Amino acid sequence: MTDENCPDIDINIEHLMTLARIDLNEVEKVKIAYSLKEILDYFRELSEVNVGGVEESAHAFPLYGVLRNDKAGPAFSVESALLNAPERRDNQFVVPKVVEQ
Amino acid sequence: MSEEIFFKSAHELSAMLSKRKVSSVELTKILIERTKQIDSKIGAFLSFDEDKTLKEAAKSDARRKRGGGGPLSPLDGIPVSLKDLVAEKGQPLTCASKILENFISPYDATVVGRLRRAGCVLWGRLNMDEFAMGSSNENSAYKAVSNPWNVNCVPGGSSGGSAASVAAGETILALGSDTGGSIRQPAAFCGICGLKPSYGAVSRYGLVAFASSLDQIGPMGRSVEDIASLFQVIAGSDKKDSSTFHFKKPDYLACLPKFQSIQKLGVPVEYFQDGLDPEVRAALERAIEFYRSAGHEVVEVSLEMTKYVMPAYYVISTAEASSNLARFDGIRYGFRSKVAKNAIDIYFKTRGEGFGEEVKRRIMLGTYVLSSENFESYYRHAQKVRTLIRNDFMRAMEGVSALIAPTTPTVAFELGEKKLDPLQMYLCDIFTVQANMVGTCAISIPCGMSSTNLPIGMQILGKPFKEQEILSLAYEFESAHGYKDLHPNI
Question: Of the candidates B340, B344, B365, which has its C-beta nearest A39's C-beta?
């Protein structure tokens, strides 16, 4: 991990952490920023490809939204939904206060 | 040929079960004992529920004893293990991540429902790279997996536990998932068979999503017949997954000998260039010669976009992953950080503490390529390149039935060898990502052994929804060679 070998790509790691909602410690910040630069440098090959007039593919085949009939079926029980809750009370998820007084 | 019952194929065991030479309970107990005995050396299992598994086996034996109700499914009573990202109601599901450490599945995946209906015994939960991100199974938050052929080597990834447990005779069959090669690459490294089905052939309901436009669940086993039987059970459309297709499902097992009429097969020249291990190349050349001498016509084809498949795959898969993994926020399920001060802080701390390094790297990468300033030049650009990759593939497939290629550029490498170099690790998937990017089916089967006694894998890529054709070609090779009867000495 030497700076001379590091590709010249601007990475604002703090900004990415905010967007991704992930805390990184100082060591991770350096390590991940470095590897992102290397990988993004490798991605540069893609810019050689002329994509003029080419449509995007979100999937390999065209996909269509499918709606089921509007008919009640078996539902997920409250107990199942809360089964893995980190914290629960009165059939609800407990979270810290989100509204300031 | 090995006489040990745990190395027998599902096909052979099915015959033994119906002739009452063994019961499902006896078979299951043998696998449980074997796993307890050897898994400390391999690390393939993350959890198993012995009592529950034996109860399912007992039910299968009772069904067989009772009779009536028509013939049993060929997989009735056969133990099948699941990669730890497929939901089985009441059982843990960790994705080999700390963030799901105590998660219990509240429902069955569609494929699990299908295995139950076929009478399969749901056995252990298998180790993997965290959230299926990796090619060596060293990214598991719990333990690395070793290759049963050489415990100092990796089993491949991300379905490393699935491949290693099948190869070591700890399970008869397993399900894996394949986003960029995660079934085929470990199958090649461990000397077993693995099928990545066409996109939309198998329901993803109950599969923890990594990259939704690329993920597929697929079968892993020690013979082509075995994976054909397992694929028969799991394939088919599902109203709970709108990306599944309605298609006429042939009898895959019955099709195996059928496709051996003369075919035209393509060999993509780009897959045989520098960087391919000489022993892998030699094994593939022998395999190609086999097909030729069996009467097939073999022609060179070109996949001109090959060089761009890998970077386009990593742009798209990380973008989709960053979006899919947003659901792990510490609010409704899974781990929640104890040190978070407020609601937003829960997200940051939970994800910072709960995800491992590679998962964080890919989320950050996906976030980067989707961020407003980079969206056009990376993500949308890669989506367009993907169109060109598909056109290129379809052009190469014109006039040929299938492509023959190596599964991996090398045999299994040593534990720790690539762990510190993410880009080198990504390049392990160089021959496998093509099938995911174009949504087609591909299989890996053993086609040789290296001088270091490690398995070499051959990949056969087919046309979308023509699994029967590549299974049949694989079966033709397998029937003429002894690789399925080679087992690691562990």
Answer: B365
Q: What is the CATH number for A42?
A: 1.10.20
pTM above 0.90, yes or no: yes
Binary contact (A21, B329; C-beta < 8 A): yes
ipTM: 0.92
A20/B367 CB distance under 8 A: yes
CA gap B328, B314 in Å, rounded: 21
What is the distance of C-alpha B215 from the center of its chain? Answer: 10
User: How far A52 CA lies from chain B's nearest CA (Å)?
Assistant: 9
Across the A/B interface, how many CB contacts are shorter than 8 Å? Answer: 169
Instruction: Give the confidence band of A3 by pLDDT, cuts at 50, 70, 90.
Output: low
Of B278, B81, B250, B48, residue with least CA distance to B160: B81
Query: Of B179, B257, B176, B163, whose CA–CA distance to B214 is shortest?
Result: B179
Domain that holds residue A15: 1-50
pLDDT band per the 50, 70, 90 thresholds, residue B260: low
- Distance CA(A83)–CA(B442), nearest Å, equals 38
**Which pLDDT value is given to residue A7?**
73
Residue B443's Cβ-side half-sphere holds a number of Cα atoms within 13 Å equal to 34
Does residue A66 lie in a domain region? no
- Say if A81 falls within a structural domain: no
CB interface of B with A, residues 407-436, below 8 Å: 422-423, 426
Name all domains of chain B by residue range, CATH numbers in brackets. Answer: 5-261+481-485 (3.90.1300.10), 306-370 (no CATH)
Residues 6+ apart with CB under 8 A from A17: A23, A24, A29, B348, B364
Mean pLDDT of all residues belonging to chain B = 96
Cα separation, B416 vs B427, whole angstroms: 16
Which residues in chain B have Cβ-Cβ distances shorter than 8 Å to A27? none
State pLDDT tens for residues B370-403. 999 999 999 999 999 999 999 999 999 999 999 9
Flag whether A44 is in a domain. Answer: yes
Report helix, strand or coil for B396. helix
B chain contacts of residue A57, beta-carbon cutoff 8 Å:
383-384, 386-387, 390
Q: Assess if residue A26 is contained within a domain.
A: yes
Decide if pLDDT at B259 tops 70: no
Name the domain count of chain A: 1
Q: Which residue has the higher pLDDT, B62 or B3?
A: B62
Indicate which residues of B carry an active-site annotation: 83, 158, 182
pLDDT at B419: 87
3-class SS at B124?
strand
- For residue B117, the distance in angstroms to the closest alpha carbon of chain A comes to 20
Q: Is B324 on the interface with A (CB under 8 A)?
A: no
Closest CA to B457 of B466, B445, B465: B445
